[in-house]
Amino acid sequence: MPIDEAAALAAEPRSGEIAWDHKDVQLYHLGIGAGIPATDPDELRYTLESRLHVLPSFATVAGAGAPGVISGLSMPGVEVDLARVLHGGQTLRINRPLPVEGRATATSRIAAVYDKGTAAILVLRTEVADAEGPLWTNDAQIFLRGEGGWGGDRGPSTRLAPPTGEPDQVVERAIREDQALLYRLCGDWNPLHADPDFAKVAGFDRPILHGLCTYGMTLKAVVDTQLDGDVTRVRSCSTRFAGVVFPGETLRIRMWRQDDAVRVAVSAVERDDAPVLADTIVEHS
User: What CA dihedral angle connects 151, 156, 141 and 139, to 10 degrees?
Assistant: First the structure.
């Protein structure tokens, strides 16, 4: 059996040093579509080193190491075909604002293994701390098609009740044709996002955008329109990847304001508002 639940959960955590500087932050921001218009003062906060602040979702790529979707597949008890792997969801919890330059220790482990029948879900937890204490915790839900059915725990439901009423704000964000190629430079080299032949093997007509790129674009939209551009107000951001995005499409981002949170739903405009991100919530101060 490709998934050995006991071995995966019993494996020792893996720790390693990560480091980043302003160039890594700027590349990430460009990778999620920042800098348009290039001279807009609000965009220069993401692109110009003298004004730079760090969007919290940078934590998903900090250190330029493989994100949870890739690194989780090399953990003990896990042996799967990369073409069967999808990123199912992501939860990021922020302890304090991310510095423009940093050095920290990242510790990763398989926090849970769930049997969904036709698929398995791994929850890879990565906790990051520097000399001053905890910085953030990332939980990546890794969806493994065809790897379930051993009779294990199905896990909790992550579905939220849908938001009620009309959204408080709706924005659209265009995705460049080369967006996935640029975002790959942040560290996720999965060929699904660049190689047409690999994409076809995985069941897609053409390469798809990284789910975490859509995640970052969405968080930026929330910060820019609901939090006065203040990245330090973000406390957490959770989402479920409900569908794929193709480079060249347009995201429609709907936002509902709540007490200390913003509910979000994201769809692909050109495909009749096909769902892209669901059960998405950004908690803030």
Answer: -130
